Structure formats: structure tokens, C-alpha cells
Amino acid sequence: MTRDERTEAAGANEWQDTWSQLQVGLQQKQNELAEFERRSTEFRYLLPSMVTGLLATPEYVAASLSRFPGDHREAIAKKLERQAVLRDTSKRFTFILTEQAVRWPYLPSPAMAVQLERLAAASLLPSVRLGVIPLSGHMPVAPLNTFTVYDDQIATVESSTGVMVFRDRRDVAAYLNEFDGYEEYALFGEKARERLASWGRQFLS
């Protein structure tokens, strides 16, 4: 790769810091994500630490934004509105959640049980393939960040202070390859729902 090609590839990537997003309003970020979802057909989500907004209950969504100052009612409403895309049968979603992401007590126990029911219900949608990775057995890899891949064009990687948007095809390919690796360890279908039900019962015990 030439120097010009390296410069062009680096320029295709974008860092979006949390502070700038707060200045323009969190609902603007929701609009941007909705546009990604409108333009894309296949989505892959690796969720090692918490549930994504597309799968979250209203209580979980509100809790996820509570660490930011200000009134987030518009952002919460937009986030919940975006969930309608899961019913678009022209699109395909694969979500992989670790046991930690599913069971982290982000809400009081009864509300967490409802959140797990929400995950199980979402897994039955025709456009959704939802897997969970239990914290048992041997797994020789460990996810460092939450990331999403839109088709094979864009990968977004989240940190506590912002989001990195990758458009360089090498970066996107690397995240696709990483996702494929985690997919091998995930439980899907009825096995995933059985595990979710078991974890949900523990929140109510």
C-alpha cells in the first residue's frame, strides 16, 4: 500500500467523542444510527458488556443514558422507535451477547427478568438471530469492545468516551473475522432461549 493509499484509508475512519455528541444532543446520534440501519441489510452485533438499544426495554434504555446529564426523553423515544427495524424482513440481524452482558444487574432484579424475556422474544423474530456465550467451558479469545458491523462496509467500535467508525475495508474485514470467531462459541435458537429463561429465573429467586 502506498503512502497516499494509507492516508486515504486513515481518512475513511472517524472518531466520534462522547462530549461532542452531548453538545449536539444524543438524539442526533440516534438519527445517525437510524440512517445506518436504513442503508444496510446485514448487521452483526458483538455485545460483551451490556444489551444494545435495539433489544432493550424502555427501562433499560433509560438507565443506559442516565449517566449523561440533561433531559434525554427525545433520545430515549428515538432509540425505542429504532427497534421497529427488527421487524423488517428484508434485513438480517445477528446479535451475540456474553453472559456478562445479559446478566449484568443494570436494573433491579424484576426489571432485569423482563429484559431477559425481551431478549428471548426478539430471538423469535424472522429477521433476528440471537446468540449467547455462557461463562463456562474454555474460550481462548476475549472481546475488548462492543462492536457492530453494517454489511461489509462499516464497523463501529464503542468505548466509554466515544465511538470509532471504521470504513477502511481492512478494519471492517478484521471485525467480520473476529465476529465469526465468537459465533462459534454462541448458543442460538432454543438453546439460547433456555439459557435466557434460566438466568431470568435467577433474577426472580
TrEMBL record:
Keyword DNA-binding listed: yes
Alphabetical UniProt keywords: DNA-binding
GO molecular function: DNA binding
Protein origin, superkingdom: Bacteria
Short name of one Pfam family: DUF5753
Domain DUF5753 intervals: 31-197
Record-linked InterPro entries: DUF5753
Name by which UniProt lists this protein: DNA-binding protein
Lineage of origin: Bacteria, Bacillati, Actinomycetota, Actinomycetes, Kitasatosporales
